[in-house]
Amino acid sequence: MNKPDIELFYNQYVNSEKIVETNYTGHFDLLYWKDLKRDLSACERLQRKPFFKIALLKGEGMYQCNDLYIPISGYSIVFTDPLTRSSFQTNDKNFEGTYCICTDNFLRGTSKINLRNWPVFHDRKVFAHSLTESEYHHLFTLFNDIEKENTSDYAFKELVIRGRIFDIIHYVQKSIPASIISSNRNEDTLDERFFKQLETEFFIINPDQPLRGKTPLYFASKLNCSTGNLNQYLKRNTGKTTQQLIHDRIIEEADVLLRHSNYSIKEIAWCLHFQETPHFINFYKKNTGKTPMEYRTN
């Protein structure tokens, strides 16, 4: 996820003046409804946010996802992914919300899981789930654990936070009937096939098995379509071009290799199909605002 996208989100939504810098792989933060009142009209605009988001909510409100309206009331939890185009509004003066936001590379860590296959993040929709009071308080405890860990000085707190997030996801997914989960699995659309192919290409990356291709033409050939049709379809459904999505995934993989491998910068550049190391350094800095070495040593 590009740094400008994250900065734009904070400028639009969050009251704090500055993004807190961490040593995490990717971006993570825990926000509250009171923090998200910088521009309430921004919440009401139908647009994508550059994060996976898990919202634990108490009160009345209305989500919109494309042409679908989703009312929430009482206790609820809501999941969205970076491709979800949504808006939210509430007139509840006592509304409360705790929001866990993180980028794709933070949530996956060093694993190769395809998060978009998971029921709560499937099909680019708003997943809203009603909770009982006891379920709400159980999840509230997990959110509190995340907050405490995030402010601790434990060297491996990123792993603990990620584990708690998956505890939340699995707790909710266990309550979804198996028939609904199986009926929701559909990877026939062009964008789903693109993301599946993208993850396949990055599944094993090392100096002996570098990335085989990183151009729209390469992926279009794998999907048996034209570059124009692929780009048009992805732009319409994700808001980004084929090239932008490929670049985002390269940055995510670079972050993992920089933080969790002993490969040199030159070896990482080779892994990611850069013939010249300076080209990789310039590409990384353009997209993140830091050089690869600055990110590795920060």
Keywords:
46% helix; globular; 5-stranded antiparallel sheet; 4-stranded antiparallel sheet; alpha+beta
Biggest sheet details: 5 strands, antiparallel
Order of helices and strands: HEHEEEEEEEHEHHHHHHHHHH
- So how many helices? 13
* Inertia-based shape: globular
**Total beta strand runs:** 9
What is Rg?
A: 19 Å
Unreliable residue stretches:
none
Instruction: Tell me, rounded to a whole number, the average pLDDT.
Output: 88
Describe the strand arrangement of the main beta sheet, using strand numbers: 1-8-3-6-9
Strand percentage: 15-25%
How much helical structure, as a percent, in the residues? 40-55%
Q: Which structural category do the helix and sheet elements fall into?
A: alpha+beta
End-to-end C-alpha gap = 18 Å
